[in-house]
Amino acid sequence: MQETEMSSTSMLRLLRLVEQDHIHITDASRVEKILSNLVAAGKQKLRVISDFDQTLSRYAFNGVRCPMSHDVIAQSNLMSEPTRAKVKKVVDYYYPKEISLTIPLSEKIQLMVDFWTQIHDIFLASNLNQRDISSTIRDSSPPLREGCDTFMSTLHRHDVPLLVFSAGLGDVIQEMFSKYNMVYPNCRVVSNFMKFDGAGKLVGFHDPLIHIFNKNKSVLPDESYFTDQRERTNVILLGDSPGDLQMADGVPNVENVLKIGYLNAHLDRLDTFTELYDIVLVQDETMDVVNSILKKILDSQT
């Protein structure tokens, strides 16, 4: 772990956040204060907001890169070989621009709109059927991070709201949660959802288009996502990219936000991540750190 301040780290040490090399915390005193505030306030004031692809789902498993939610369809046998090649060409062009540290955000936003629009247009031209899509998702969905079941069930058991905010495919996410028996009433998914006609044919995508750089209150279906429980002013935010940091925008009267970032690859971006996230987990395919923090918060009132 890298630290610039170590004036008070009792909570960090208790949670073993200062003893593991893959955990990076730049401002230990600040994180200590946030953690202490979260524990003191307890579950009544807590909400969790998380990205899905490569945050709740794994980046890699047994050394093999895992598909993201769009990939589950794009790389499947539902697509012809030429269509899969077409998708790859689009991804190879736009993905480096998505993760670029030199392209201004103002330019990236339009690039991401073009990126997802082209992918969705390929899907629409592929004569996809809802039944086949559901079957493919259940057979080929990527594994979730180790401990994700504990994460989901713990939040449900303590009635802590979880917003899964994803630029991926909501149909894939919901089908995966169903596959792994993780469908809970406290969890809401905001993502790109498919539209099907009466015969089950894919005919479109619901508006608005959600991409990595507009995951904020502007694309929420209604204000109730944040305003129904105004007393929940403490947030744990989980993501794997700089764009995920805006997911809590719109939470009213925020008091404390603990930002936990997964740096899955491109380790040359570590300095950028440690500037943006309070806690950075490098190549960690588990939910161990998050679960230990939740346990401390939730156990404080049992």
TrEMBL record:
One of its GO terms (molecular function) is 5'-nucleotidase activity. It holds the Pfam family UMPH-1. This is 5'-nucleotidase. Keywords: Cytoplasm, Hydrolase, Magnesium, Metal-binding, Nucleotide metabolism, Nucleotide-binding. The keyword rRNA processing does not apply. It is found in: Cytoplasm. Belongs to the pyrimidine 5'-nucleotidase family. One of its GO terms (biological process) is nucleotide metabolic process. Its EC number is 3.1.3.5. One of its GO terms (cellular component) is cytoplasm. The keyword Magnesium applies. It catalyses: a ribonucleoside 5'-phosphate + H2O = a ribonucleoside + phosphate. InterPro entries: HAD-like_sf (IPR036412), HAD_sf (IPR023214), Pyrimidine_nucleotidase_eu (IPR006434). It is an enzyme of class 3 (hydrolase).
